[in-house]
Each structure stands twice: as C-alpha cells, then as structure tokens.
Specification:
Elements (H helix, E strand, L loop, with lengths): L15 H9 L5 H5 L5 E4 L15 E13 L6 E7 L10 E7 L13 E6 L2 E3 L2 E5 L2 E5 L13 E4 L8 H14 L17 H9 L4 H32 L10 H9 L6 H14 L6 E6 L5 H14 L3 E5 L3 H15 L6 E4 L4 E3 L10 E4 L13 E6 L7 H8 L6 E6 L5 H7 L4 E5 L9 E7 L3 H13 L3 E5 L14 H11 L5 E4 L5 H12 L5 E4 L12 E6 L7 H8 L9 E7 L4 H12 L3 H12 L1 H10 L13 H17 L7 E5 L3 E4 L4
Parallel strand pairs: 4-7, 10-16, 10-17, 11-14, 11-15, 12-14, 15-16, 18-23, 19-21, 19-22, 20-21, 22-23
Antiparallel strand pairs: 1-9, 2-3, 2-5, 3-4, 5-8, 6-7, 12-13, 24-25
Helix pairs in contact: 4-5, 5-19, 6-8, 7-8, 15-17, 17-18
C-alpha cells in the first residue's frame, strides 16, 4: 500500500512513458490522477440495440468490425469502419458505419476483426446509418482485468494524451485498490455520507448509476465550497474596508422624481431604496442591478448617480459600445439637464458636454472604456456604474473603480441569470432585481414556426415594413460553414436585398470594424435602414422603438436566454412586437426548448429553464463567468448544494479566520484556492 501523495515517478505500477504522459496532463501524484473523475458512464451490463433510424440521443453499441478502409482524398479523406452486431440484424439494423475525418492514425487502432464498443449519435445519409467521430474502445478478451471493462457500469474519462482509455481505467482501478485511503482525505471534510476514499471508489467504479450520481454530488460540494470560500472571503474583506457616506441629501432625487411624466415601477423603487441604504452605510456599495431588457435599469442608475452628485462628488457610467454610451448620454441629458445636472460624454470618437458644462466640471460622465484614459475627467469620483458589466474585463472594471477613492459601485446586466449562478458568480455582491416592466411597452408576441415557407416569411416582413416599422433578421453564423448546413448572415443579406428590393437592407455582424458596426446601428436607429440582417451582435444594442419584427433563423442553434435577450430588442415603443422563431423541427429537444419562449416572457424563468436544458457553459459563457474549469457544472442548477457550500464556507472562515489571504488546499495537493485581499 502506498500514499496517494507520493510522486508518480516513485510508483512501480506505471511505465516511464505513462508517468510522462500524466505529468504532461498536469498530474504528479496518484491523488491528482484520481481527481480526474469520469465524464460519464456506460452501463455495459447491457448495450443498446443497433438502431433502425437516426436519433438525437447517443447510443452505446457493442459489435465487430467487418470492414475498415480509408476513403476520399486530401482534406476530404476519412477512415471508415463498418460495425455489425451479433444478431445479424434480428434485433435492429445490425450494422453501423463509423467515420473519422482527418484522423489517419485511427487505422492503427480500429481494424477488421476487432470487437469494439462505440458511442455517439446516429444519423442517416444516403440510406446508411452513420456515427461520425464516435467515442470507441477496442475490446481485448485476453487482457487481465476484463471485469472492469465489461459486464459492469464502466467509467469513461476525458482523454489523457498518450494513455488509451482502457489503460487509464486500469490505472484508476489499481490506484484505488493499492493506495492508503487515509491519504485521500481532505483538510475540510464535507458531509458526503461516508469517508472520502469510499466516495472516490464509487465515483470511479460505481455499483449503480444512482451511487455514481451521489458520489459526484459530494465532490461537487467540495468544488463549490472552494468557490464560495473565495466569494465569502472577498465579501468579508470588502465589508471591512472604510467607505464614504453618500446619499444623505435627496434634493436632486426628489426633483428628478417630480419631473418624470410617469411613476417608477415597484421594482425600480425597491431597488432605489436598497441603493440609498447602501450609499448611506460607512462602507463602499458593491451591488448588482439585474433585470430584463426594458425593465428600467437606466432610471435606477440615474437615481443612484443623482445621490452621488447631491453629495458633492462625481458619478461615471461605462458602457460597452460607443453607440450605447451615446444613447445613455442623450437619455441622461434629456432628464437631468432640466434639473441643473452637468452631463458629459467621453468615447474614443466623441467628446461632448451638456449645455451646463461651462459652469464647471461634469457631475456625471458617461462613456466607453475611453473613460480609463482621460486623467482630466475626475476630481472626486464617488460612484461607478458599469452597464452590461460582463462585456468588460476584470482589469477594465478595476481601472475605472480605481479612478475614485473607495467609490460606491453599481454593476448592471440585462442578462437574466439563474439564482444558483448569481450565488456562484456574484456571491460577493448584493443583488437588486427588476422583475417588473414599465407601463407603455408594446405587446410582444412570440411564435414558433416549424418548416415555414420562405414566401410566407417574406410576405409578413413586407407587411410590417409597409406599415413603417423596422425588422431584425437574425442568423447564427457570420459566414458560410462547411461543417454546418446553416445559412449565414452574409449569404442571407444578398438574398434579402432582392426580396426587399424596395427597402434598405443593412448587414451587421461581429467581424465588421467597430466604426462600421457603429455606423450601421446608427443608421438603423435613425430609420435609414428598414431591415437589418444580423448575428447576435445586436444582443446588447441600442433602443430602436420603431423595430417591431424579429425573424430568428435556425432558432434551435440559440440558447433560450439568448433568444429572450434578442427579442427584448423589439416592442420597445407602443406598437406590438413580433418575434418569429424559425426551425426545421427535426429535433424534439429543440422544439421543447423553443416552446418555453412561447409560453413565458419571464426572463428569470427562462434562464432557469436554459440552465436545466443546456447547462451553465452555454447559458452564460463559462470563459467570461470564470467557470470554465468547473468539473461539475451540471450541479450548478442544484440550489440546495450551492447553499450548503456557502454555509460551509462561512462556517470555516468563522472558525479559522487565519485562512484569509493564504492558499487553502481543499483536496490533497490538487487545488489551491487563493483568497485575494482585494
């Protein structure tokens, strides 16, 4: 028996090339290797029947390779293996063709006569059932330890270069069998229903799928505890920082309220009250304002900024694009200049002040990242507002905040975020939610259309344009793709120019230069463009009240929350908005997903459904959210687990406050969790 913390090079179980391969993957000890948990499991006590037709659900098949050959030439070459089951087609098609493109080395692994297990989605092409790039494993009946590869629930791991799947499984089995279980314990043991070593064995070689799920949940709790420890520490340190007391004077806020020709919603008033309470505390505000497109975040931000101005300091709002910053500037100037507030705009291409700015420095400055580079702007920055904050990097946000002396911070997002993700990503912020829409908005109708005729779509768009409205025509891709049979925005633009020959049709996508993007969006806003062919670049865009139509092509390729964000671009005036979701209807899963949008307009309900159906990576963009390295993202929908992790983190820091500012090892020699001081 050996310690799981010994260097791999000292273990006789591994060949030198295996130690090198594991080292290249970042693993130096057995404990680290065992932390490489399965990505999924195959129940090899019984395999799926060879199917008779294509399907959206992956199948796991066992059979023999009866023919294998290379086909095609050059870049279009591929390796093809025909796999047949043992029934000769009695219980299904009996035959599946597996193909691997641009992987010539596959012929060294898969050859005629091999018994194999293959896993993947089956499609139909020219009368044949095909799995492209299946996961596979060649079975060798003569190998020792066959019992861990067949006739049981078998773990399937993410690839480690240089070590075949089968050998990796054997290594895991040997490590679990021979390492000292005490060396697999963690400094902070979580209540997982038994010792950690037992949970590790059940995670790798489960007796049941339910047992595997339970053990994975236990390790997810460990991981979320690590995240929450960081979040709780940051929050505690932030609350300890001395701040400034703002918001005692409310003369400008009252004048603003009295000047509005409408009343704020209950949610807006509640959020303003929460912000007022924060600003009056002797610590810096650190609040997230979360609400759907059109929920009125701008007016809440105005109220907060007026409190700062009334406290004799400046306020700044940073927006991700020039045109959005310009829109904010015009809105702020319209409402605040009459009550005597000096407003200025600073972008890379524009430097403009309100008519009152001659009286002194601007009291409110609105701009893009250009705010970060003008040293003459701020004398006493007391409040920082960041719009669509996920569009900025951490360093950009920190740079603007650093322009003031411990300023209050309000970050805003129009992306509805599920409660569990909010708890994980923004757990160090206080959260205000705008869950009501202001009155006066047009009705928004969402319609799902399966296999709609192009002529019918053309007719509907023309009818709306004839009424003087404008339309968004949205596509998932910028340019044509060889691998995806999906029409792109660039292709579609040429077609729509012919279909709508009497109208001006524009094109907008992320590959255009920034100045060109700004110009196209400005022309659309000003009514010079009638129909805009676009990608999702309009997701965070300007207010175009006259845009009432959105045709979303290949809707199955978008996420629910993303579509909801997109459709928030229409119906912003007093006219009815129409969002039409076009899909081929081939995927039952996609139809189920898209029907959610027909049934509800509640962004938070949609975000929860999106998290449940697609997972957090697609919902929020894991690279931006900081969740890219999570091993258990599927449990982010588990509210109870997140709360348990939060409670555990708070308890640990209460009992061991000296942990602050040090690296905390949560799993033996595996994960260092840094608790920063700022």
């Amino acid at each position: 028996m050996f310690s799981a913390r010994e260097p791999l090079a000292e273990l006789s179980l591994l060949a030198a090339k295996e130690v090198a391969a594991l080292g290249a993957a970042g693993y130096e000890t057995a404990a680290e290797v065992l932390d490489h948990l399965p990505k999924r499991y195959e129940d090899r006590r019984r395999f799926d029947l060879f199917p008779n037709q294509a399907g959206a659900t992956p199948v796991c098949l066992r059979g023999s390779v009866v023919d294998a050959t290379r086909r095609g030439f050059g870049r279009r070459s591929f390796y093809e293996a025909v796999v047949m089951d043992g029934s000769g087609g009695v219980f299904g098609s009996g035959k599946i063709t597996c193909r691997w493109f641009n992987m010539p080395f596959i012929h060294k692994w898969v050859a005629t006569g091999h018994d194999v297990v293959v896993y993947g989605k089956v499609k139909e092409q020219q009368g044949r059932l095909i799995i492209d790039h299946p996961e596979f494993e060649v079975l060798d009946e003569g190998r020792e330890g066959e019992s861990i590869h067949l006739e049981r629930i078998v773990p399937i791991y993410r690839n480690v270069s240089g070590i075949p799947q089968r050998r990796l499984r054997e290594i895991m089995f040997l490590f679990l069998k021979q390492c000292d279980p005490e060396t697999l314990a963690a400094p902070f043991e979580v209540d997982g229903g038994g010792p950690r070593a037992e949970a590790m064995r059940e995670a790798h070689f489960p007796e049941s799928l339910e047992g595997a799920e339970q053990s994975r949940r236990r390790f997810a709790l460990e991981e979320f505890f690590a995240l929450q420890l960081n979040v709780v520490w940051r929050r505690s340190r932030y609350l300890e920082r001395p701040g400034r007391v703002l918001g005692r004077k409310t003369a400008l806020l009252k004048a603003f309220y009295e000047s509005l020709p409408f009343d704020l919603t209950g949610a807006q008033k509640r959020s303003v009250h929460e912000i007022v309470a924060d600003m009056r505390e002797g610590r810096p505000m650190n609040r997230l304002l979360q609400g759907d497109v059109g929920s009125g975040k701008t007016f809440v931000a105005m109220a907060a900024m007026l409190l700062a101005v009334d406290s004799d300091c400046q306020a700044a709002l940073m927006a991700p694009t020039q045109i959005l910053a310009e829109q904010h500037f015009l809105t702020f100037r319209k409402w605040l200049e009459p009550i005597g507030v000096r407003v200025a705009l600073r972008t890379a291409n524009r430097d403009e002040g309100s008519h009152l700015e001659l009286e002194g420095k601007p009291q409110i400055v609105i701009g893009t990242h250009a705010l970060l580079y003008d040293d003459s702007l701020f004398e006493d920055l007391g409040l920082v507002v960041i719009d669509e904050q996920h569009k900025f990097g951490v360093s950009q946000r920190a740079a603007l905040i650093g322009r003031g002396t411990v300023p209050d911070v309000l970050v805003m997002t129009a992306t509805p975020i599920p409660r569990t993700l909010t708890m994980t990503i923004y757990g160090d912020l206080d959260v205000s939610v705008l869950d009501e829409k202001p009155p006066g908005r047009g009705k928004l109708v969402t319609a799902l259309r399966k296999g709609a005729k192009q002529t019918d779509v053309n007719k509907f768009v023309k009818e709306q344009l004839e009424k003087g409205r404008q339309a968004y025509l949205v596509y998932p891709l910028v340019e044509e793709s060889e691998s995806l049979k999906v029409e792109s925005a660039t292709e579609a633009h040429e077609k729509w120019k012919k279909r709508l020959s009497k109208y001006e049709v524009g094109l907008l996508h992320g590959k255009l230069p920034p100045e060109e993007k700004e110009g196209v969006m400005r022309r659309f806003r000003d009514g010079e463009i009638d129909a805009l062919v676009s990608t999702t670049v309009i997701e965070v865009g300007v207010d175009v009240p006259n845009a009432t139509v959105m045709i979303l092509h290949h809707a199955e390729r978008f996420g629910l929350a993303q579509i909801h964000q997109l459709r928030g671009r229409i119906g912003r005036g007093g006219h009815t908005g129409y969002c039409v979701l076009l899909t081929d209807g081939r995927s039952a899963e996609a139809m189920e997903k898209l029907q959610v949008l027909e049934e509800t307009s509640d962004g938070f309900e949609i975000a929860e459904a999106d998290l449940r159906l697609r997972g957090p990576g697609d919902v929020l963009g894991t690279m931006q959210s900081g969740l890219s390295d999570l091993r258990f993202p599927e449990f982010l929908a588990d509210t109870a687990l997140l709360r348990e992790a939060r409670s555990l983190a708070e308890q640990v820091l209460r009992e061991e406050p000296s942990l602050g500012g040090r690296h905390v090892k949560l799993r033996p020699l595996i994960t260092d969790v840094e608790l920063p001081l700022d």
